[in-house]
Amino acid sequence: xxxxxxxxxxxxxxxxxxxxxxxxxxxxxxxxxxxxxxxxxxxxxxxxxxxxxxxxxxxxxxxxxxxxxxxxxxxxxxxxxxxxxxxxxxxxxxxxxxxxxxxxxxxxxxxxxxxxxxxxxxxxxxxxxxxxxxxxxxxxxxxxxxxxxxxxxxxxxxxxxxxxxxxxxxxxxxxxxxxxxxxxxxxxxxxxxxxxxxxxxxxxxxxxxxxxxxxxxxxxxxxxxxxxxxxxxxxxxxxxxxxxxxxxxxxxxxxxxxxxxxxxxxxxxxxxxxxxxxxxxxxxxxxxxxxxxxxxxxxxxxxxxxxxxxxxxxxxxxxxxxxxxxxxxxxxxxx
Length: 335
Fold this sequence. Notes:
The protein has about 325 residues and is an alpha+beta fold. Among the domains are: about 110 residues, Alpha-Beta Plaits; about 100 residues, Chitinase A, domain 3 (Roll), CATH 3.10.50.40.
């Protein structure tokens, strides 16, 4: 096999590959067998006819075309190995010659992994922080466990902070209901701050059967960027109000979570919090090291096709995320 390499710049090369007949003869035989299985040749079962009979039936050029993909896959891998190239992505293939009794000649344009030369990244000091946990950290988690075991009782009174309210709600903007802006029998504990700022306060004083309407502005840092800092109209129907009683922190509560006593539960929580903080500190250090590596390194030019492919991938991922949030790309881009 003959391979000529031409450097195209920007981490791309062009390989002119000529594959002699003796190196792809086996691929022709396999291709002929596949075509023979699809053809009716008198005196032979499908796929059992000899090469010459199949060639006479389907035409030699059709056999070459059937074998072409296998010839290219096999020879391209050999060429890349021979030239000691580290390629990325799929090559662009241009067939130069495909004719019975002749070598197969094609040109493969391939992207190479850009060469990276590391700089003096070790010179920048990485500051580490001693990981500690406080009683406040443990108390926050213990309070969350208490909320998980809260006793709820349906009440016939107006809602107060700390109550759970079950409601139907609808969110609209310019009299158009937002995609994903409708929820039925939605539970919400007032005071936990899980909704748009001001929403929970509007429900204080409401009781089952009440219908409310009000406007609120989404915060600047709202997770849906297309809604950030925009005013929306909310329609609420209160269905139920529950009072919630939190349990005491004691051994009985610990046993509900599978621990022998409260001391064992608190120790496990403290250990988990410490491990989580240690992991986050380690991730922070690794991120700083990586940033130093990138900012001090010299990287060869990146192929335009690779950049195009990455941009396309990012756009596709953004579109997928928006659709999961009930949004459309055109509306997102307009905001």
